[in-house]
């Protein structure tokens, strides 16, 4: 029976990738994106997140780079089509809880974004940011 793949997280995550669920090989090996030639590792490097294309067995390096990996559904299957709608719904709720836990760990909920106000104002407007959806058009965080 395929196994679940543990979350790959660390204390100072800047980025969390979320797969749908692990494939059977990933479940057997306990590695995210374990299949040889999986595009994830090439894209991670091409996007500038890593200095080289990592092997799946080198994934333990990612948390030190501020990068984590999780899955929406923990159960390994041959494909996402094998998942039930209830599993996806439960997975969405678990993912939200994971993200909340990780944010609290980093104290991101008290992060303050600053933006200089143009025009006659000399001060700065402070915006409390809980997640990216709270950023309004025209407000940029620095």
Fold blueprint:
Layout: E1 15-19, H1 24-29, H2 39-46, E2 67-71, H3 85-106, E3 112-116, E4 124-128
Parallel strand pairs: 1-2
Antiparallel strand pairs: 3-4
Describe the structure.
This protein is an alpha+beta fold and 142 residues long. It folds into 2 domains: 94 residues, Uracil-DNA glycosylase-like domain (Uracil-DNA Glycosylase, subunit E); 32 residues, no CATH class. Helices cover 25% and strands 14% of the residues. The chain has 3 helices and 4 strands. It has a two-stranded parallel ribbon. Strands 3-4 form a two-stranded antiparallel sheet. The longest helix has 22 residues. The protein starts with 14 loop residues before the first strand and ends in a 14-residue tail after the last strand.
Jot down its keywords.
single chain; 142 residues; alpha+beta; Uracil-DNA Glycosylase, subunit E; two-stranded parallel ribbon; two-stranded antiparallel sheet; 3 helices; 4 strands; 25% helix
Q: For the terminal residues, how far apart are their CA atoms? A: 47 Å
Structural class: alpha+beta
The CATH architecture of the largest domain would be 3-Layer(aba) Sandwich
What portion of the residues fall into strands of 2 or more residues?
5-15%
CATH H-level homologous superfamily name of the largest domain: Uracil-DNA glycosylase-like domain
For the largest sheet, list the strands in their spatial order: 1-2
Low-confidence stretches: 108-142
Using only C-alpha atoms, the radius of gyration works out to 19 Å
Number of β-strand runs: 4
CATH topology descriptor of the largest domain: Uracil-DNA Glycosylase, subunit E
Mean pLDDT: 77
Order of helices and strands: EHHEHEE
Q: Can you tell me the number of structural domains?
A: 2
Instruction: Give the proportion of residues in helices.
Output: 25-40%
Number of helices: 3
Q: Which CATH C-level class of the largest domain is it?
A: Alpha Beta
